[in-house]
């Protein structure tokens, strides 16, 4: 499955375009199927209706666990590094992980979970999180993992949208020197979640928790009551594997749906190729399993390939800025996959935290989540890779299931800040606002994909029309990514950022409408508008313009109150970095907010605001500019 030379890449790419079905059938034959497919692909982007490997039967956990037992039973599957470096790390071999997954799968069954039921998982980055995810897949339950940084209300919305039956959580989580009371947040969420029947709670921080009779039970007690034999449920290739919520340009997060067969093939194939994973190597992805990166490249991709995947509970700066490098040294990490925001934040500490650390085990470096600026790219290359490790800048999305445009390590010549070339099977196209293809090189446009790939989303949970409208209706017969993109003279792709109303804060997607709705719920706020602006560490920061008529002298107190409201409604990750109180917003005669102007103000570039003659009240712009200078 692995591509080894650039010529081989070019040939493979051509074949994947000319004969996509043959190509993907060939890749899929490297996986374990209970029954082979009748048809490789049927598709139609208008509906949309996308089906890969129809008629095939499989269970992804047999690919991630059972099939490795004979030869790799004693090989580490998961190495866990705790938040506290003084605590012991834990290694789960493939045999042990298999047993734990089977056991917990039986716990889920015992608590009423059946094939097709939805299970919400809200857990810290501990091995049991991976176990819970795989246990769902084992019995054909659909997991919906919610990142630990979301508020009770956000969790409740997600649970209700998917009508989840069970929640798996923990008493609490450690993050740096902080503790997060996960069970308490779940208790708050569940006040408004009538579909939840059972809550399974893992002991982790040993913080006191309230346990509701008949509803709540302890993970540790439950696993003692079941046996360790759990046959894998036979799934159709197009059965749902998981739902993962992500933000878009409208208010409500969407439940992106991935299915068993295509997702498995795509996550496994891209993992093996992009990182050039070799047997026995230790692979460390610093993401959280609450995001798609963790799903595809901590759990499913690596385990499907029999890799050793390192899970880290903590944060890059705890107990100090050497932590990543200590982990690399301690576990002899060979492949490190992280985010530009982490690199930029560590860069800020200079080279001292890297000095004296043995990073010689490193062979491949990866970046994901947002555009990587040249300065961060070079720092990563020089200080961490010692100019000896290829950097794979991987562009993809929750919706794409796996990496789409990226160098293949040791194969594709890299170029700082470029995601470079499409992987085999991926057909990118740049279009103008009218949807006309922009051909040739040295051009900019909106990035679309014109042919299906196995890992793509199939629908948005409970609302197929929304999936169609969001991704398949902007341009006919194309999947629209929402990203702007440059194709340079060499045909290399550089992602320039979102062209819709989505902000990318530290690699996390946040919808401006979502933040506005949250701010508007604060008493006293009449209206608000939120835009992104360049931020040295986070990539983008959140800038909020807020109309709040009865403002007292202590503006800062009101600011803090608003932040508290946003934290309650969405979670701390959506807190605006800057709040500017204004008496009006720049609107067109038809009532549309001119975000272009607000973005300029937020960037601090008010010299050329362009044409503002269509504004209802041009005077409001001057007020905003003047006030922004005092912020
Ligand atoms: C958006 C998707 C996919 C994993 C994590 C984020 C941006 C992602 C890159 C990259 C430039 C990137 C895009 C994309 N993005 N990777 N290598 N270079 N931009 O997943 O939350 O679904 O966000 O992240 O804007 O659309 P996500």
TrEMBL record:
<dbReference type="Pfam" id="PF13193">
    <property type="entry name" value="AMP-binding_C"/>
</dbReference>
<dbReference type="InterPro" id="IPR045851">
    <property type="entry name" value="AMP-bd_C_sf"/>
</dbReference>
<keyword id="KW-0067">ATP-binding</keyword>
<dbReference type="Pfam" id="PF16177">
    <property type="entry name" value="ACAS_N"/>
</dbReference>
<comment type="similarity">
    <text>Belongs to the ATP-dependent AMP-binding enzyme family.</text>
</comment>
<dbReference type="InterPro" id="IPR042099">
    <property type="entry name" value="ANL_N_sf"/>
</dbReference>
<dbReference type="InterPro" id="IPR000873">
    <property type="entry name" value="AMP-dep_synth/lig_dom"/>
</dbReference>
<dbReference type="InterPro" id="IPR020845">
    <property type="entry name" value="AMP-binding_CS"/>
</dbReference>
<keyword id="KW-0547">Nucleotide-binding</keyword>
<protein>
    <recommendedName>
        <fullName>Acetate--CoA ligase</fullName>
        <ecNumber>6.2.1.1</ecNumber>
    </recommendedName>
</protein>
<keyword id="KW-0007">Acetylation</keyword>
<dbReference type="InterPro" id="IPR032387">
    <property type="entry name" value="ACAS_N"/>
</dbReference>
<keyword id="KW-0436">Ligase</keyword>
<dbReference type="Pfam" id="PF00501">
    <property type="entry name" value="AMP-binding"/>
</dbReference>
<feature type="domain" description="AMP-dependent synthetase/ligase">
    <location>
        <begin position="66"/>
        <end position="452"/>
    </location>
</feature>
<dbReference type="InterPro" id="IPR025110">
    <property type="entry name" value="AMP-bd_C"/>
</dbReference>
<dbReference type="InterPro" id="IPR011904">
    <property type="entry name" value="Ac_CoA_lig"/>
</dbReference>
<dbReference type="GO" id="GO:0003987">
    <property type="term" value="F:acetate-CoA ligase activity"/>
</dbReference>
<feature type="domain" description="Acetyl-coenzyme A synthetase N-terminal">
    <location>
        <begin position="9"/>
        <end position="64"/>
    </location>
</feature>
<feature type="domain" description="AMP-binding enzyme C-terminal">
    <location>
        <begin position="514"/>
        <end position="592"/>
    </location>
</feature>
